[in-house]
Amino acid sequence: MSSDALVLGGGLVGAATAYGLAREGLSVTVLDEGDVAFRASRGNFGLVWVQSKGDGYPDYAIWTRRSADLWPSLDAMLKEETGVSTAYEKPGGLHFCLSEEELENRKALLARLHNVHGAANYGARLVDRQEVREMMPEIGPDVVGGTYCEHDGHASPLYLLRALHDGIKRRGGRIVADARAETIARDGEGYAVKTPSGTYRAGRVVLAAGLGNKALGKEVGLDLNIAPLKGQILVTERTKPRLNMPTHVVRQTGEGSIMIGDSHEDVGFDVSSSSDVMATLAARAIRMFPFVKDLRIVRSWAALRIMSPDGYPIYQQSETHPGVFSVNCHSGVTLAGSHALALAPMIAKGALGEELAAFSARRFDAPAN
Amino acid sequence: MNSYDVVVVGAGPAGMACATEASRAGLSTLVLDEQPRPGGQIYRDIEVSDPGRRALLGKDYGEGARIAEAFRASKAEYRSGAVVWNIDSEKRIDYSAGGRSHSVQAKSLVVATGAIERPTPMPGWTLPGVTTVGAVQILLKTSGIVFEDLVLVGSGPLLWLAATQMIAAGAPPKAIVETVPRSRYREAARHFAKALRGWRYLAKGFAMMRAVKKAGVPVHSDAADIAIEGEIAVTAVTFTSGGTRQRIETAHVALHQGVVPNQQITRLMNCKHRFDDSQRAFLPVVDESFETSIPGVYVAGDGAGIGGAKSAEMRGRLVAMRIAEKVGNRAGEAAKLRTELAKDAAVRPLLEALYAPAADVLAPADATMVCRCEEITAGQIREAVALGAPGPNQVKSFLRAGMGPCQGRMCGLAVSEIIAAAKGETPSTVDYYRIRPPLKPLLLSELAGLGAEEPREAAE
Amino acid sequence: MPQRIDGSGETVRFTFEGREVAARAGETLAAALIAAGETTTRDSVVSGAPRGPFCMMGVCYECLVEIDGVPNRQACMIVAEPGMTVNRQTADEVVA
């Protein structure tokens, strides 16, 4: 079974990359896990989030912003090709602060980011207590202010995944379930990937197996220092439209559910006992939006984010195994635009662009400072 | 946080008997139950139903009074109206009662949450006026409510029991539409000799059928292609029986295709499950003392496989004996109970063969709604499989099936069956929805207040 | 119409959609509503189609009603109390 490219992993990262490769005209086979896979994708909060990304790491801010800018095209393509709406909206997004101290920290962060990227490119601005209330009338009295960014938006991670899978298939790609990649070996000019459901061959291989990349990377000379970081999300019953834009920890879905999560940037979040974490998330959500106290939680999700040592993505082509690329990141929804429409064309051409040089795994070789 | 030797979830026959036996053996025991009064569904309102109503519900219902009395007399603590919404791997139980959430720690956990009715997807099954047969029985037990035009649709002992209870209450069903195919009798016959050990059940079954006949209730056998009609509520049931299409006008239809273990807690805790071909349902894997794959977690009663109320009581006692024995307390004599339990189970293979779920319900037409909460049809599920979804969890994320407030209870088994058929596999390999907290929808304000009332003790 | 086979129990009165409904003390709202011939308790949040009590044991979430202004409450799990104001849960209350 041979194709131009094999993508190992059918979650948001793998599916977006595979869809992009298929758009580039490559024949693509996605080797997916079974029914209990996609933990990170299923647990994604659904933000297409630009603000505050890349503090101290301008390339990440640029890459994220690029993805947000590509999102409207990606959304339109998927809708046209598959009929599936990803529920993408770009009303801008708010990040709230619950104390003066938080607000001061936020101000400082904003200043740092502006100094590096410039205000125009970054697009976030400080909003005070009064303006926050004008923008979102449901906001609670404890919110002292926050930041607003017009480039922020949100989408349904689940519909996005479905649309990508559908899109891959419609472009002639194959998605094979219960085919978790076990080994990668050289095979003539290309590679052979062994799975429980057979061996697959291609000239290009993309490792997009989430935490599974660590073991796969070893087979192709990639030392990927990635680890899981647990995050939790609460979902309420449906309610009438109450929130006109997403915020960093609370958003309303197209169906009317309120989603409550821990923020993308709170990477140090400790998850020891799930009921207690759920209670903490609930308490914070009520402080931000008091009306949610009367809603019922119908589901909670714990998901594992894929974290590199510095929290930024790793994009890397293997030096020992040319043609084998590795994609490691969290924020699979935010970065879907870049993965499908910027990264995939690079992989199709056989080399990652200069703009991804900062995301090489080699940055961890020397002690960071 | 309070800690108990044994926490039992559910106060039906298994839960009550287990708690009684456990406290007798000197174990500190807490029973948490959602309902306002003990009894479970089978003995619902057993303590408060009036003597007249109790008489028409039958002798077996009356048995519940003895079990409830012993339970009340025991030292076991009992919290009614307590909705368990999470249990972690350390057996910390979070539950909601009186508008607040509380946590307790169990050394041993007994899941005695019994059975729920098998999903019965068919055209029109979401119309107001359509209920489960269990619902009809609950209305009779709790409120003495009967219907003049009730049509019972499906198969199983409960269908006949409900019919006889309605007859005794002076309101015979308008009709019984039975979905057992004729060929089934021949298939089931091979289990008959063994079932004779359980002759009391057989005798009760024949007596129920005689009572229905005597009351002149029309029985439409070998019915298939059932559809419930109506715009805003039920107006009629249509079906094919005896080679002709028939239509019965009614405002009340009760559906039944047997009961299946309520797996929510054992799934939440990631206990091992297996698909039982005879019961056509997922069962937690348990040992001979009903301990699951997670040490210290037991399933008493129908939750470990359908056995009925008598069996549930015995299994509850056996679980308590095993827990007591493990901690070195003096336990009752288990051997005799095991013999009785085996005898009681003799009739099950016959019943399971005869009353296996109808083919229509296992493989609904494309247009039939399967997930009632999110209104997902069988056809959409098949499309998701065609798109590559390997199982119920991917189908859930593609379609939102199972994401509504019932959390998959009303569709889960049907979804697994449909996916299995579409993939040419069995439910065993396809498996089931992953279950996550909260087990039942929980008010955010209540969740936020978790632990505020009872500060958690520092870890020892 | 459904009937009651015995006359036992005190009567508790509450309103449903503005109409007075008589329940027996200790019985659930759903049972009292069914006895009163009210089989529709909510509209589906997806299509708006009418729904009513199905399982009567707290499993199916079809009998959701609004009680004293609080939506999404299970009529089959809540005992009728005197003076409760119960309304059908309409789809637009939940999601537009």
UniProtKB/TrEMBL annotation, chain A:
InterPro entries: FAD-dep_OxRdtase, FAD/NAD-bd_sf. One of its GO terms (molecular function) is oxidoreductase activity. Residues 4-346 form the FAD dependent oxidoreductase domain. One of its GO terms (cellular component) is cytoplasm. It comes from Jiella pacifica. This is FAD-dependent oxidoreductase. The keyword Oxidoreductase applies. Keywords: Oxidoreductase.
From TrEMBL, chain B:
The keyword Zinc does not apply. The keyword Amino-acid biosynthesis does not apply. Residues 4-313 form the FAD/NAD(P)-binding domain. It comes from the Bacteria. Residues 369-420 form the BFD-like [2Fe-2S]-binding domain. InterPro entries: BFD-like_2Fe2S-bd_dom, BFD-like_2Fe2S-bd_dom_sf, FAD/NAD-bd_sf, FAD/NAD-binding_dom, Metab_Enz_Cyan_OpOx_G3PDH, Opine_Oxase_asu/HCN_bsu. Keywords: Oxidoreductase. GO terms for molecular function: oxidoreductase activity. SUPFAM superfamilies: FAD/NAD(P)-binding domain. It holds the Pfam family Fer2_BFD. Gene3D superfamilies: BFD-like [2Fe-2S]-binding domain, FAD/NAD(P)-binding domain. PANTHER family: ANAEROBIC GLYCEROL-3-PHOSPHATE DEHYDROGENASE SUBUNIT B. This is FAD-dependent oxidoreductase. It comes from Jiella pacifica. The lineage of its organism: Bacteria, Pseudomonadati, Pseudomonadota, Alphaproteobacteria, Hyphomicrobiales.
UniProtKB/TrEMBL annotation, chain C:
It comes from the Bacteria. GO terms for molecular function: iron-sulfur cluster binding; oxidoreductase activity. Keywords: Oxidoreductase. Signal peptide: none annotated. This is (2Fe-2S)-binding protein. It holds the Pfam family Fer2_4.
